[in-house]
Amino acid sequence: MRGISGMARLVSVLAGTVILGVAAALVPATASAAVPRFDHIVLVMFENVGFDSIIGSSRAPYFNHLADSGALFTDAHAQTHPSQPNYIALFSGSTQGVTDDSCPHNLGGPNLSTALAATGHSFTGYAESMPTPGYTACTGSNGRYARKHNSWVDFADVPPAANQTFAAFPRDYSRLPTVSFVSPDMCNDIHDCPVSTGDTWLRNNLGGYADWAKANNSLLVVTFDEDEGTRANHIPTIFYGTGINPGRYSQRIDHYSVLRTLEDAYALPPLGESAHAAPITNIWAPTLGGIPLPTGSH
After folding, report:
1. Same domain, 164 and 21
2. Same domain, 3 and 132
3. Coil/strand/helix, residue 42
4. Could you tell me if residue 24 is inside a domain?
5. Cβ(212)–Cβ(39) under 8 Å?
6. Domain of 12?
7. Is 297 a member of any domain?
8. Count of C-beta atoms within a 10 Å radius of residue 230
9. Are 154 and 190 in contact (CB under 8 A)?
10. What pLDDT digit, counting tens, does each position of 6-62 carry?
11. 83 and 23 in a common domain
12. 247 and 272: one domain?
């Protein structure tokens, strides 16, 4: 009986080894997954600060918390200077010929909002300190709202209902649209105020969503329009949420790469220059039966 028991244990071990070997063969630890389809994506854009002024800075503890617990891109870049063309590029796949911060612009053609709507998904932009929903003027009365940081209002076919104040950002995150863009005001986006102000704003206003996203098949993207004006235009970009394999990722990305990743999440046709950008696929933790598997180095 003792021999039979030992043989049974051996068979069990061998069977387990075979099963694990099959699992490893089906989902290699170093494989890249396609972009997952999230229930919600929120992208927030900050202003005019380069990578080295945020990552590792004592003035930015919450940015660095997200970077340490999510996917930090160490070679992320904006498209150009100044601010406005970068916002338009991230929303439409092109700077649309805009080269400055002039206002207003009335642009046509495809954009992220119309692409989402055409496939049964939804988009809303939330702009802090914008006086009223659907507002189209270039500035607000308190000097802290600027349309140049609100790309969606520049496109005539984006409905006024998709242009909301940040006060309308749902506190029940399950009520968010498929994709949201958030534009803090001219102080809280670090344009006119210190890095620490933007860091506190991010923690207080989107920290709850970040925690919720991680447990609810959703994603937070934190990025910057441009750096302080250098030729390199090296900016922080962080992805945080469900299914991310935390770490530092060294591939070069830009605003078109981020847009292409959002498009691929919902099988949207790539817009403009995003058609020539590779989607971000190497940060997603592969799974077997919904259980994340370990991955290799980045």
Report:
1. no
2. no
3. strand
4. yes
5. no
6. 1-30
7. no
8. 10
9. no
10. 444 433 433 443 333 333 233 333 333 599 999 999 999 999 999 999 999 999 999
11. no
12. yes
